[in-house]
Amino acid sequence: MKVAILGAGQLGRMLALAGYPLGIACELYDQTAETPGGQVAKITAGAFDDYRKLTALARRADVVTFDWENVPVESLRVILRSTPVYPQPAALEVAQDRLLEKTAFGQLGIPTVGFAAVNTRADLDAAALKLGLPGILKTRRFGYDGKGQVRIHRAADMGRAFAALAGQPLIYESFVNFSREVSLIGVRGSTGETAFYPLTENVHEQGILATSRAPCRAGSLQASAERYMRSIFKKYKYVGVLAIEFFVANGRLIANEMAPRVHNSGHWTIEGARTSQFENHLRAICGLPLGDTSATGHAGMVNLIGRLPKKKTVLAVRGLHLHDYGKTEARPGRKLGHLTLVTSSARSRDLALGRALKLR
After folding, report:
1. pTM
2. What CATH architecture is 180-359?
3. CB–CB of 224/182 below 8 Å?
4. Separation between Cα atoms, residue 279 and residue 294, nearest integer Å
């Protein structure tokens, strides 16, 4: 079986590594060969709208997937003429636009914050009047890891916020006073088989995921999250791994966004689940039975952002696993790797996670 992966960052790298034990060969595609994925698998360099190169890649593969949600949807539709693409382009198209995404959530009965489209300063004034302050003004497309958004605390902030993002379609979202952030990662196979990982509790710093803990104390939230994800699976006839990020407010889930791909908050599954999200994504898109998603213990993950700790120091800590993405350039805000650990209890996990944070 051969899988073509559009995008060759750390997620493409981990997908390729997960394929080797299954006898699945992965070929990656990115704008440059100097990528984390290109260090572990064959890679083709080219533009994401180079239909000739993309079609040639697709014809060498049994199925095509992606590790990056900014792949042009039209490129995937061109590829579909010759080779299956999973997850389906329709799901990606919705996830690429925050307005379409929240509208789709609402149509499926998935709770969201209040939101309104903003194209002019008058639209922003009207949205703030209707939804209230504080709120967040965001670009509808291409925002990730805290990019493309400005928080508005008071009316005096609106001019500055609009000027910072003007010239592109925007969305205003009301602010939610949440107690924590969680994510659900699930997978659906081509036969309709589904499986879900335990809810993960996440902490962000400056809009970038910093730590994850799983399984988190979720109560009835796990069942609600799975119900919401099933509705998305059904609507899009989804195949592959899907992640949904939620706020928890007053004991209920409020959907923030979805990612139709393997997800940073699921990195703990490599050491902490019986089958990783990466292996299960490949199983799903290749028509293989899904693997067991249960946790093997209490897992923690720390993102390594901007710089890597010394390997000798990290690897001297018993039970701590280092994933170095092999990126050649370190810079502020760039994800260079992550640390994971698995313990027998939530208390020991949290203590170990604190030590890992100090190493970071």
Report:
1. 0.96
2. 2-Layer Sandwich (3.30)
3. no
4. 14
